[in-house]
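Notebook entry, structure prediction.
Reason for the run: the old model in the group folder had no record of what sequence produced it. Starting over properly, with the input documented here first.
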Amino acid sequence: WYTYFYQCSECRRCSVFCPYGIDTAEITIAAREIMASIGVATKYVTEVVAKVYKTGNNLGIPPAAWKDNCEFLEDDVKEETGLPIRFPVDMEGAEVLLVPPSADNFSNTDTMIGYGKLFHFLGISWTTSTYCNEAGNFGLFLNFANLKKVNQRILDAARMLGVKTIIWGECGHAWRAGIMTPTLSGPMDEFEPPYPYHISQFIVDMLHKGAFDGRIDKSANDEYRVTYHDPCNSARAGQLIEEPREIIRATCNRFKEMPEGTIRQKTFCCGAGNGLLADEIMPIRMAGGKPRAMAVKHTRANYLATVCAICKAQLPEVMHYWDVPAKVGGVIDLLARALKM
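New structure, fully documented this time:
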């Protein structure tokens, strides 16, 4: 069981095609629940969950280090743009609590900078929380009790700071858990809007309201031939499909989809979801990522956009391993480049 169910990425692609309608991810979830009850789980998944309770995020970043890095980003962005773009932490009464994956603040910094530029451009006050600065939920990969407990921290942080809106950042399993929030943690009627709200949904709403009219320079991304990877947790499990594409089309002149049958609900997993992002199983990860690499190679894209932190960690390795010369980055990264600040 341990070997079998901890090789499953719970991506649910097999479930899409199963003639009997069997959702194998649900079987994996049930099996892991049973194993967890007798103390059988991977070190990687259990350590990550423990770090959330101790530090507020999956990477084990102490609150002081989170604040310091936000200050470093402020300095870097001011040097680049000349603008006083803030990355607030624990600001009470902000309009928005952003819960990104913690990797955005330490490795995917272009994505974190994208959040800051976006809110600065729109004149919206926002903050992150040192109590819960991580939307990623490895409880989803372990058992229901931890899934619920980790998710509850997001609402607790929002109430502590008295924000109006919670926005989930670019993380696939965070969004998969996030859309369960009303079921796991109760109604969100006190927030605007009350339902779980993704950064891509927010950006599209602002596009439709005309907030970016005449202020996006698509030519800023002309060096890129862009394609888009649907994270399995965002697309198949979270129905976040058209919003990232609308953002890409609004910010890029050169966008090409991967072949039909490999996108939207039929997307291929990056190969490292569901707690498989561990170096000791690199051969499994690279084999799992091959179908995605071949689909990207077909497009001849040199920029692979996605809205998942695990995909952003896995796919550069996959592209290098399978000799596909494509940079991997966030969707909001493209918007940040194109904004006329």
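Summary: The mean pLDDT is 95.
The old model has been moved to the deprecated folder.
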